Amino acid sequence: MAITYIGASTIQASSSGITVSVPTGYREGDFLLLCTLVATAQTMSTPSGWTSVGNYANLGKKQYFYKFAAASESSVALSDSGSCNFGEMLCFRGVDTTSPVNATATGDGLSQYDTDFSLPAITTTVANCMVLFFSGTGVVSPAPTPTAQTFTNYWLSITSNGNLTDGTNMLGRAASVSAYYSIGFYRGIQGTAGSTGSPVVRPPIIGGSNGSGGYVDVGYSTYIIALTPAPVLYADISYVAAGAIEANSSAITLGVPSGYAAGDLLLIVTLTATSEAMSTPSGWESYGSCNGTGCVSIFWRVATASESSVTLSDSGSCNMGVMLCFRGVNITTPINGTNIGLDYSNYNTSQSLPEITTTVPGCLILQITNTAQATPTPSPSSQTFTNYWLSMVSHGNLANGTNMLGRIAPVSSVYYSLGFYSGLKILAGATGSPVVKSAISTSEDIIYQKYVLALTPANIVSSMNTFFGRVF
Questions:
Q1: In which domain, by residue range, is 170 found?
Q2: 222 and 105, same domain (yes or no)
Q3: In principle, which of 20, 23, 110, 457 could form an S-S bond with 7, CB 3.0–4.6 Å?
Q4: What is the pLDDT of residue 51?
Q5: 144 and 18, same structural domain?
Q6: 407 pLDDT exceeds 80?
Q7: pTM listed for this prediction
Q8: With the CA atoms of 41, 47, 51 and 57 taken in that order, what torsion angle do they form, in degrees rounded to the nearest 10?
Q9: Order of strands across the sheet with 363-374?
Q10: Distance between CA 298 and CA 459 in Å, rounded?
Q11: If phi over 0 gives left and psi between -120 and 50 gives alpha, with beta otherwise, what is residue 193?
């Protein structure tokens, strides 16, 4: 799979300690790269939980550290006795977790203002590596004087990309400590294994006068790292659509979601106000039920090219149900695991959804929640579930948590509701407990019944489905 650059934190610079923040948009499983420069040749200590890639001591010492992100990451504090410390954290998605670094190289040189300068080449051993050039400069009294956050305006302009595609001058910063030190980043993709060639750049910094009508040379030092792309193992599961959530005191007919295709997973979720489970429809498989605030039943089947609506009935005083469609699910073993929960909560009180532990990466987690409460105020309307029932407080260890759809229906002065929340568990393991808050005002406790299931992604070889921006 292709490696994607997600983002970077603000480059920090100080003559003492620095604190480097985590880039916006990171998520569990992303590759975090911490880059530091010390103006002296001293070594920056490896932060706890990080792995050192290596260092290069010329025009200060440049160092790389990396880790794979957990669901929650914190900023990193760094300190060194060097006269100028720089720090930056970059985030990439789709990096191989076993051997993330394919190759490294170093290089340095001198260049005058407005003169082309070749960055060093590196040789990769696999296709589609992301190649990152981490360069530092040193110059006395540059003119014009650079400003701290307009690095691409004064440091490098790209003349050619060598053998790389998508060559991009990313970001950088300069700081004055007896001289101007700067760091900057250039990246590109090496489509085939082999030499990157030498990208050519031009520095628009004018050095100070050398006393003979010329300019002081700008010194360059570059550390290159090639990141290995992750193998394609799984495609993300995509939520295609859902039919309308139906509610009735007798039979309900569930429509097939629009946009379904043969091979998709169809999922029926029903709620009966009594403790009696709904009977399994013909041609469907039952995955079980749970009792608490009524009875929730789950059925599934693999879609054919032509599907029909399903009629269900039960003797309960309130029947609700919906059919949902998902793509990219393992049709042999679609369910990776389940869990249930039952709680009572006051209005506007945070409520934790059940945790589940997945055994494979890339599972789509579906939280099915139903409630029962008497005469809520304001009285909810039947199809504006996200406006009145749940608001998200936190997503646990899930990425792209989404409050999907829902409905509420009154029966004998009691309001029953059925709703769905989904999130992506990128790595195998515990999902954590997403936290929600009810937006219904009522004079009594709200009863929550919660059912969580994990959908298993299909194993693929050459084709890829992309959802939430991730492919394994």
A1: 4-227
A2: yes
A3: 23
A4: 94
A5: yes
A6: no
A7: 0.70
A8: -10
A9: 335-345, 446-455, 363-374, 414-425, 399-411
A10: 24
A11: beta
Q: Which of 127, 122, 125, 130 is nearest to 162 (CA)?
A: 122
Residues 206 and 244 in one domain: no
Beta-sheet pairing, 165-176 with 76-78: unpaired
Interatomic CA distance for residues 237 and 267, integer angstroms? 14
CB 61 within 8 A of CB 40: yes
DSSP state of 143: B
pLDDT tens by residue, 28-54: 889 999 988 777 667 778 899 999 988
> Measured between alpha carbons, how far is 401 from 2 in angstroms, rounded to an integer?
24
Between CA 440 and CA 46 the distance in angstroms is: 49
pLDDT digits (tens, 9 = 90+) for 409-455: 776 667 777 888 888 898 889 998 888 766 555 555 566 678 889 99
Query: Can you read off the two tokens belonging to residue 2?
Result: 């292709």
Separation CA 30–CA 333 (nearest Å): 27
Give the model confidence (pLDDT) of 92-120 as tens digits: 999 998 899 999 988 776 655 556 777 78
User: Which of the four pLDDT bands, split at 50, 70 and 90, describes residue 172?
Assistant: low
Question: DSSP labels for 318-338?
Answer: -EEEEEEEEESB-SSS-EEEE
Q: Is 312 exposed, middle or buried (0-12, 13-18, 19+ CB in 10 A)?
A: buried
**Count of residues making up the chain:** 472
The pLDDT score that the predictor gives to residue 190 is 92
Examine the pLDDT at 251 and tell me if it is beyond 70: yes
CA angle 465, 471, 472 (to 5 degrees): 120
Query: Do 254 and 111 share a domain, yes or no?
Result: no
* C-alpha–C-alpha distance, residues 266 and 301, integer Å: 5
Query: Final residue of a domain: which of 204, 227, 250?
Result: 227
